[in-house]
Amino acid sequence: MKILIAAAGSRGDVDPYTGLGAALRAAGHDVALAATAPFAPLVRAAGLDFRALPGDTRARGDVTDRRELMRTASAFLAELGQGFADVVDEDTDLLLLSTTTAPLGWHLAEATGTPALGVYLQPTAPTGAFPPVVTGARSLGRFGNRAAGRFALRMADRISEQGVARLRERLGLPPLTASAMRRRQERAHWPVLHGCSTALVPAPSDWRPGLEVVGNWWPHVDASARLPADLEDFLGAGPRPVLIGFGSMAAGERERLGELAVRALRRAGLRGILQSGSAGPAAACGPDVLTVGDVPHALLFPRLAAVVHHAGAGTSAAALRAGVPAVPVPVTADQPFWARRLAALGAATEPVPFGSLTAEALADALDRVVRQETYTRAARAAARQLRSEDGAARVVEAVEGLALRR
Predict the structure, then answer these.
(1) Do 167 and 56 share a structural domain?
(2) Residues with pLDDT less than 50, the chain
(3) 110-116 long-range Cβ contacts below 8 angstroms, 24+ apart
(4) What pTM, to 2 d.p., does this model score?
(5) How many domains does one find in the chain?
(6) What are the helix (H) ranges across 11-140?
């Protein structure tokens, strides 16, 4: 089959699909991954065809201001929809749609007659089991959680409304609101496979048919990949260090974060690795602190004592897979949700909100997570569950089931 995977967002929203695409390619399918331009090298390194989508997903301004986030997201989706229409070939056999691209992809599927399957990194369907991932709220009880989940979907509909209207006009389709299309998909039990572990999100009993939690799909890592020599030397020069990094969040605060991280490490008496990048800490380092760029989590995390991270879905899962406890410092969007799920497992400290992060608070959390063995035991127990799951294989199985019914 000729399969087009469409994903949009930060690196954590795109990178897992390189591993999923590689698994589908290994199963004999012709796979392209559509994403914004900065991710072309990641996609091509996995041996996949790259299709460029428009838009700039780099964090800008105050990423914690919800109204600004909604305005930015609405404009991004409106632009994305037009580019999405350009990359769907008439010989595409199947669309695999992420959480972000599904509200647009449904309309492309209608216009072209191409089957579509959801491959989400986050659960979005309302449930009484937990609050919606985008609110970061604590549980409101079963009734409150479901009500909040329905409200979150209505807000998502509002964000995609402009893009949907423009896309349907371009495709020559009759007007249909984003919410009406979503309800249509729900009534049809449109299938969605969720690429997260049941250790963090067991499938709720009140979900509609067609929704499954299948296990993570992991970023592609070449079999020949190795850690840089200076990082290997640092890892071998003393006790296991901790890693501190914040993904693509808070891009304007590198210097402050770097200085804060070094003070926290020294206060806790720990060796540390600062991960640089668009939002990574930057600071002058001594013999017990090393700054690195992007390195594969699968190679580095198993060799750490703990990870301080922004609690994105992918990084949270990668730390669990390695059996390494975490100090979650959520910034926005779904990060508070994953931070609380990690803490509920006992594999992380209680979240340290980014807005109130200090060197003292980080040092105290690091001291607890490294010195108290209960955190490591919980992380290792979760790692065993993650290793028993093969999310990519489940997607391959679903895709081949669709192929047989064509």
Answers:
(1) yes
(2) 59-63, 278-280
(3) 110/173, 111/171, 111/172, 111/173, 112/88, 114/88, 115/402, 115/406, 116/190
(4) 0.91
(5) 2
(6) 11-14, 16-26, 40-45, 66-87, 102-112
